[in-house]
Amino acid sequence: MASKLRFAVEFVPQEAYWQTTALGILAEKYGFDFCWITDHFNNRSVYVILSLLANYTDSIMIGPGVTNPYLINPVQTASTLMSLDNLSGGRAILGIGAGDKITLNLLGIERTKPLTAVKESTLIFRTIFDTGKMKDFEGKVFSVEKAKVAFEKTGEIPIYIGAQGPKMLQLAGSMGQGVLVNASHPVDFKFAMKQIKKGIAAAKRKRSDVDISAYASVSVDKKMEKATKAATPVVAFIVAGSPPVVLERHGITPESVEPIAKGLGKGDFPMAFGAVTDDMLEAFCIRGTPDECTDKIKALQKVGITQFVFGSPIGPKKRISMELASKEILPHFK
Ligand code: F42
Question: Which of 31, 219, 229, 263 would give a disulfide with 271, using CB separation of 3.0 to 4.6 Å?
Answer without folding.
Answer: 263
